[in-house]
User: Fold J domain-containing protein from Vicia faba.
Amino acid sequence: MFGRGAPKKSDNTKYYEILGVSKSASPDDLKKAYKKAAIKNHPDKGGDPEKFKELAQAYEVLSDPEKREIYDQYGEDALKEGMSGGGGHDPFDIFSSFFGGGGFPGGGSRVRRQRRGEDVVHPLKVSLEDLYLGTSKKLSLSRNVLCSKCNGKGSKSGASMQCSGCQGSGMKVSMRHLGANMIQQMQHPCNDCKGTGETISDKDRCPQCKGEKVVQHKKVLEVHVEKGMQNGQKITFPGEADEAPDTVTGDIVFVLQQKENPKFKRNGEDLFVEHSLSLTEALCGFQFALTHLDGRQLLIKSNPGEVVKPDSYKAINDEGMPMYQRPFMKGKLYIHFTVEFPESLTLDQVKALETILPARPVSQLTDMEIDECEETTLHDVNMDEESRRKKQSPQESYDEDDDMPGGAQRVQCAQQ
Ligand SMILES: [Zn+2]
Ligand SMILES: [Zn+2]
Assistant:
């Protein structure tokens, strides 16, 4: 969209100058002038590509009555502003459509400048075992291939007609007047030819592809997942995406998506596993077998006399993930230990433990001092629940804060 206070008269002669015609040139004059200049300046004939582009741009605007009117009134900038995506057509497409989609007159090598087809991206779910061991997966995919019967022409004769709806450009420009000096210009693919710029008569239509130029084809691709590949890594099959006429076929790209493993977590080359020890194991030693991703049993044991603290880590070298393209090198396997403490102990157990464990710090409270303290009761709390409750009712939290100083003091007293 653009607005303009007053029509600007400058910069609306350049296109006429490029084509070497007068401002009153008829559509036929323009056609002749463009044809002559475009052939002379075509890059395939050693012409200057910039000049060729300018010619195409000038002709594209002046040959379209609506665009020519905007250009004559407001100049080049108005067209640029209205063009979606900073637009304009490919100069080779304009050249080709001018000559009816055929080759270069006089046998030039370029039939039509090829655009690149879109890549097709598929997620590929893999297990951590797949990434540890490497694997290959066969996938059956359906894709468009050029019709073999008509070689992607869509017609029996191989001929096609220029679409009358868009003069073969494949695009249409529509304009909306949004007020005195406001014009909104929009470019969109032509409906008549689905943006291809050409049409095929019903009689001439290829019976195999019904004029669609492509047919569906099933193909099995074997995807090799290499050892050590990462979540999100891409595996590319160049030129295996949908085929289309005058198009360089895009790639099929598989993006690895690692499924969660119930036991192992991965971080780069390292693996992490959780292991819970009983208090007895944590204090007196442990040993257990861990089944690795390849099915091997690893014997994991503590050193004699070693105590494992809650929330501590230990690592085993070279038992992590293989490194991508260096699978003989491996990361570390980290074990995160949690310790299950007993819920309670009998008095006898307490006595027995006290004879073994290091002596407790001597109480420095005299009986007198204890008598001066206030009695308290310790309750079990679930801190997560407490904080959630406090978030829900701030008023209650305020009340409890009020009580806190007293409570804190009491605890302090007991510890002295
Ligand atoms: Zn069309
Ligand atoms: Zn066909």
